[in-house]
Amino acid sequence: MSTFIYLASQSPRRRQLLEQLGVRHELLLPDEDEDSEALEEVKPGEAPAAYVRRVTGLKLDAALARLRRRQLPPAPVLCSDTTVALGRAIYGKPADAKEAARMLRELAGRTHRVLTAVAVQSGRKRVEALSDSRVSFAALSPARIRAYVDSGEPMGKAGAYAVQGRAAAHIMRISGSYTGIMGLPLHETATLLEAVGIRP
């Protein structure tokens, strides 16, 4: 029985959330020659839930290959991916400040979904879950959007915002999992870890 898991994520928020659960973990990050961004490309016409599940599965496959390649001790591997969706439109991480501002303009004054898929594999057993939450933004003036983009916080975040950061000032309502919106839904994650013998 393993006493720790591998977390295949570069997100400091996911590490923080796993620590909140009290789960011992080691990072299993991509090698320099791995193109992890390429795994996040959206297929034409792909629905947001199908997209985030597929990307999480690809990330987990890559992490398991990394584990074998490095000949590390066996332990469960956890992967997660988050996307923001407005209708069927998928909002990933903005490429630059201009794209971040466009995303925020489109999300302002509306309700969108935040989908986070989680997958854990231990040996040959793979378990998966999907968290689906809704976030309602207040209307945002161009000056507010500009100030938020200038803070740098939107970069590297799906939908160009962080619920646990300055964006919270503009969020009127949340329905669903706050930790799922952050990037790792703790209820679903704890359930998956228990299914592979790790008790948070």
Can you characterise this structure?
With 200 residues, this protein is α/β, with parallel strands linked by helices. The chain contains six helices and seven strands. The chain has helices at residues 12-21, 48-70, 97-107, 142-150, 178-182, 186-195; strands at residues 5-7, 25-27, 77-86, 89-91, 111-122, 125-137, 171-175. Strands 1, 2, 3, 4, 5, 6 and 7 form a seven-stranded mixed beta sheet that branches. Helix 3 (97-107) crosses helix 4. The longest helix is centred in the first third of the chain and has 23 residues, at 48-70. The protein is globular and about 55 Å long. The protein starts with a strand and ends in a 5-residue tail after the last helix.
